[in-house]
Amino acid sequence: MATTKQRINISVSKSTHDALMLLAKRDQEPLATKAGELVEFALELEEDRMLSEIAAKRDVKGVRWIKDNDRIWK
Description:
Blueprint: H1 14-27, H2 31-58
Helix pairs in contact: 1-2
């Protein structure tokens, strides 16, 4: 059976493997599924961190704020 998901091989420490196994068992799902979910979650956190850095650079004193209303977006 073909899959639409891409496969990757990673090496992890025994403690990381054990933790993944416990989480997968707790959630009653395969180890690879749990690892994939955690990778996706980590990517979302990284994206949030990067967007926060961009926002912090733009958040400076003395900026003139424009009232947000529907007329601006037309």
